[in-house]
Amino acid sequence: MDEIAVIRMWITNKINKKVTADMSDSMVEFLSCAVENGCKGSTFAEDEERIIVYTMWSDEATLEQFRSSRDYKALEERIIDSYVSAGFEIPNDILFNSTAKILFKN
Question: Half-sphere exposure of residue 70, counting CA atoms within 13 Å on the CB side?
């Protein structure tokens, strides 16, 4: 497996809201498209207070190429719409959104 150089993470505050089927479907579609565009792996998770999503990339240029694509923009809009329909206030409910260089992994 190629060495993973960067991750992209975003964490959303749930504030007693539930992940809906539409939210899940839009996120799975987005993450599947990310893999088709060079993503090395992804996770979509939740705990009692947060929704957590991260993607892993071999380099930041590949990530940024995907982030500037039409597919990304269309899928991002679908995700936002699904969250808003479920009662989330975007961007206010977003707690953390960042790209980070991996310094060590096991």
Answer: 0
Instruction: Say whether pTM exceeds 0.85.
Output: yes
DSSP bridge pairs for 82? none
Q: What is the CA radius of gyration of the chain?
A: 14
Q: Write out the H or E segment, with its range, that includes residue 96.
A: strand 94-101
pLDDT(4) > 80: no
Contacts 24+ apart (CB under 8 A), 28-32: 29/75, 29/78, 30/75, 30/76, 30/78, 30/79, 31/55
Q: Do the Cβ atoms of 51 and 38 come closer than 8 Å?
A: no
Q: Residue 51 pLDDT > 60, yes or no?
A: yes
CA distance 60 to 65: 9
